[in-house]
Write the structure tokens for this entry.
Amino acid sequence: MAKCGRNVILYDPNKNRIEESEKNLEFVRVLRKATNPDALIDELNKKRPDMMVFVHSRVDDMELERISEALASPKFQNLPILLLVELECQERVAPLFPATNLVISNRAEDSADWVVRVEAMLEELDNQSQVIVLDDDEYFRGMEISLIDDGYNPIEMSCGTEVIDYLTKNSADVLLLDIDCYDMDVFELADKVRSTPGGAHAPIVFLTDGVTEELTKKFNEKSSCGYLVKPIHGKDMRAKIEDAIRRGPEMLERKLVVVVDDDVMTLKSIQAMLKDEYKIIALPSAMQAIKYFETKVPDIVLLDYEMPVKNGLEVLRVIRSKSGFNNVPVIMLTGNKEKQTVVSCIQCGAQGYLTKPVNSISLRLRIRQLLGVVPGAVQ
């Protein structure tokens, strides 16, 4: 499980005291200090912290309502807050903090005592799953955070660069990535996430306003744990996160099967047969397959023999002409059972063929053999 980034906002109007407190908070990785209400609200608007320490001062009483309004944002509803306030002011001040995860302590206590409380609260966050929420729409981002911040520790991000910077130094258990990332293509971002120390094995769930077949292919290609369509219901969000945490490592390790066939029903049928065991990319034409193979090398290819424009043998010859495809198994799919058809497939470099309609058991067994995961596998 990932640890929280220990990003803490410390508010204290007393500048001398805040400097002294900083010396005692060495375990905090990112300490964001504010000494007046405007600076505090500005820090809150920039990014949700992991927790906040608020040292009450009577001089701020006129500004407390403004601070309370800022904290009323949905993304702060479960923000851990340590409120240090005088005993005689607690009953009046505490209700102005709408967060449900509020810890109240006497401001008069020794600083060492409340520092211990801060460390304990951060350690508690360490025991929660760390979930990055990337959405450049502030409203949706706030709502998405509010759906998960009870039991998970949400990490607010507004752009892809922030995600990469964070994962270079920290880690996450799940990433929720809105596909409309404004500073980079979200699928390029997914690739960059995989190259960071903290995101190499983190499952990804994409957030989208709608879904198309093309998007579904890209989601599968990026080894994601699926997607959620906005607006998102809380139970759906939490169920998807739990599923991603459970299935994430398995999804990353799944082999990639590319199916090329101009018959949509065949594509859908094969996807249904294999989706629980493999990552599937379905391509409905020979030309799309050739373009795809220019930049991607799958673990195995299922290739229809009879297609318009270019048939399966022509695609197979293109595949075998590429150096990176020397060891990629290819299974031809054909409705033609003539001996010469089979011989042509083998001569062009196919490892075998299956006749249509494809039998689910035969297909899965043949793929496992060619990938070397059952006895009798082709080496």
Notes: The chain has a mean pLDDT of 88. The first strand starts at residue 7 and ends at 11.
